[in-house]
Design brief:
Keywords: Cell outer membrane, Membrane, Signal. By secondary structure, the chain is mostly helical. It has 23 helices and eleven strands. Among the domains are: 163 residues, Alpha Horseshoe (Serine Threonine Protein Phosphatase 5, Tetratricopeptide repeat), CATH 1.25.40.890; 201 residues, Serine Threonine Protein Phosphatase 5, Tetratricopeptide repeat (Alpha Horseshoe), CATH 1.25.40.390.
């Protein structure tokens, strides 16, 4: 029973335990007392390592090899929703979620994803305990003491930020480690803004510590937190606090603007910049890798960035990534891309809604940003009348270069690295050796290898496959694993700043920031003199494509909602492009819903993940207050 209590942190675990005084004095492995731990330099450092243990890997590591939030928003459809309906996405789509058994909180915690409530509170307790002990601990090097303490503060800020993103303002603030024997009846949940200020306070401790570096420069320290991460967390969380879902009717946009302005300036001053050069042209600019309408240096640049892991070095090639996961994403060519020679599964299939979000190359939105669809099911697009470039009969021509780097569509081309047993006409430059052939991606109905299909696991559900994270040379004959997931990057911070600036009325700053992102992508600047309302819409649209399939959309849709809203306009229905090949080789395009029934994870209660039922019941019984999120 005592060891079970250690799995949960803070009051949630404390309420489970009948007699816990001895447990509080033990290390997480239950073999050493805390006094013994903090009386030894190496054991003190090892205890800090336990504070790192619950940083999630993200990427495809959600159970079962899924992009999780990407598939639960309007960005994509998960093929496992049908093949394995008991796994996370299938249960989310079917509304099979309760506080007692939710696919996010009651699922495998492999790679740190899932069981967030217990795991993050466990990490917070370890961080708080470390902070309370480190000043008097035996540490040989004073610089280590200062750095370790700063790391613990920053890690606590990170875990709080993750809890706040998922669960909202149902959290107490833990400045000191709780004694399991104390009276918890007076424990209260803090407001969203109050928790954000606490997170920023912890970040400021890290930023004020001279011994904490701005960047990790050696492999031996890979994965350690640093000052740049503190700025990224501050940037994100004050933006979330100012957003309609979380601001409790108060205006925090000016503060969000100032915080983001300072964070962005500090990151730039300390060497962070957008990834602006193709460094591996032989891979990303070769005629084999990028043929056809998607042959574009900006396309190659964007694809290279997301398929390469940041190297730890004093002067790295990648200066955009602020903090990346500790592990790669696995063989995504086999589980979350276009499939492989064994035809396992395609995983994440981008939706027509995401495809519609990419502008044409002249910088015009394809759809009306105020009302993109004329019907609830998104089958009737409301085209932007100012766009004279988009052609519904040739829908993939002349689009934002990021579209070609992120999505495989009907007619896309990539290097053929698989041993498909298929007809030679599916390859270009046949009969060249397999490694020199170019595979033409065909997603039309009845195409036997990569065509759209409602249930085949390796096939696309939507008419599209994910490309963004898939190395151009990866496949069954060349199994290149997906790059480490970029948890924080400068591009996101720039867009955080742009949004806060636009909302605060600092329109020139907002436009300049957005245009920096667009210039890197090869897109024209936004029209001058946009109104505040129109600029905010363009900032939201820019976030959607620049941060596509990086799990930001899931949280953005929620924070842009009011507490009484639901997600019916975006998440209830998602659509596919069903393509028919005509006898003359031309194609006909028809939109349809991915499945005949609606997804059910759009109602108001899905704005938040519920506190696990047993934890919510304990909190109610001890404090007399209802801690559970609305609807659960």
């Amino acid at each position: 029973m005592k060891m079970k209590a250690l799995r949960y942190a803070l009051i949630l675990a404390m309420l489970m335990v009948t007699s816990c005084k001895d447990v509080l004095d033990m290390a997480p492995d239950g073999k050493l007392t805390m006094d013994e731990i903090f009386a030894d330099n190496d054991k003190t450092g090892a205890f800090l390592n336990s504070c790192y243990a619950n940083i999630p890997v993200k990427g495809t590591r959600y159970f079962f090899w899924s992009r999780g939030p990407v598939n639960w928003s309007d960005e994509s459809w998960d093929t496992d929703a049908e093949a394995e309906s008991w796994i996370m996405s299938g249960r989310m789509y079917n509304g099979d979620a309760s506080a007692g058994n939710h696919p996010i909180t009651n699922i495998s915690a492999d790679a740190g994803n899932g069981e967030y409530w217990a795991r993050y509170w466990n990490a917070i307790r370890n961080c708080t305990l470390f902070i309370s002990r480190i000043d008097k601990a035996t540490v040989r090097n004073p610089a280590d003491r200062a750095r370790w303490k700063a790391e613990a503060h920053l890690l606590r800020a990170y875990y709080y930020s993750e809890l706040l993103k998922w669960f909202g303002a149902v959290l107490p603030i833990e400045r000191e480690p709780y004694d399991f024997q104390q009276d918890f009846s007076n424990v209260t949940k803090a407001g969203y803004y109050e928790v954000v200020k606490f997170i920023m306070e912890d970040c400021d401790v890290a930023l004020g510590t001279a011994e904490l570096p701005w960047r990790i420069t050696t492999d031996s320290e890979g994965g350690r937190v640093h000052k740049a991460m503190a700025e990224a967390i501050k940037s994100k969380m004050i933006l979330f606090a100012a957003s309609p879902l979380n601001n409790a009717g108060k205006d925090y946009w000016q503060e969000a603007y100032q915080v983001n302005k300072t964070s962005l300036e500090n990151l730039r001053t300390n060497g962070y910049e957008l990834y602006n050069k193709v460094n591996l042209p032989q891979t990303y600019l070769s005629d084999v890798a990028f043929l056809g309408p998607d042959k574009n240096e900006k396309t190659a640049l964007y694809n290279e960035y997301f398929t390469q892991t940041m190297k730890y070095a004093p002067n790295p090639v990648d200066r955009e990534t602020i903090f990346q996961s500790r592990e790669n994403q696995g063989n995504i060519w086999n589980i979350d891309g276009i499939g492989s020679q064994d035809g396992y599964k395609s995983g994440t299939c981008p939706t027509q809604e995401l495809v519609d979000a990419y502008e044409t190359a002249d910088g015009q939105p394809v759809l009306d940003l105020d009302k993109p669809y004329l019907d609830d099911q998104h089958l009737q697009p409301n085209y932007n009348t100012a766009n004279k470039t988009y052609d519904p009969k040739n829908p993939y021509a002349k689009r934002d270069p990021r579209f070609y780097a992120s999505i495989y569509y009907n007619g896309s081309k990539r290097k053929a690295m698989w041993n498909f047993a298929e007809a030679p006409e599916s390859f270009e430059n046949y009969p060249a050796p397999i490694g020199n052939r170019t595979r033409v991606i065909a997603t039309y109905k009845n195409e036997p290898q990569t065509g759209i299909h409602p249930s085949t696991r390796k096939a696309t559900r939507t008419g599209y496959y994910e490309r963004k994270f898939l190395h151009p040379n990866s496949g069954g004959d060349n199994p290149i694993a997906g790059a480490n997931w970029k948890l924080f990057r400068l591009g996101e911070v720039i867009l955080n700043f742009a949004e806060a600036a636009a909302e605060a009325g600092q329109l020139a700053d907002a436009a300049k920031a957005v245009n920096e992102i667009r210039a890197r992508a090869g897109m024209p600047a936004l029209p001058a003199s946009l109104s505040k309302a129109d600029l905010i819409k363009r900032v939201h649209a820019e976030r959607r494509v620049e941060l596509a399939m990086e799990e930001n959309r899931y949280f953005d849709l929620r924070r842009w909602s009011k507490p009484t809203d639901d997600l019916s306009k975006t998440d209830r229905w998602v659509t596919a492009m069903e393509i028919s090949r005509n006898a003359d080789g031309s194609f006909a395009y028809a939109r349809r819903t991915v499945r005949a029934t609606e997804r059910k994870n759009y109602t108001n209660k899905f704005l938040w993940v519920p506190i696990p039922l047993n934890e919510a019941n304990r909190l109610r019984s001890i404090t007399g207050a209802d801690w559970q999120n609305a609807g659960w």
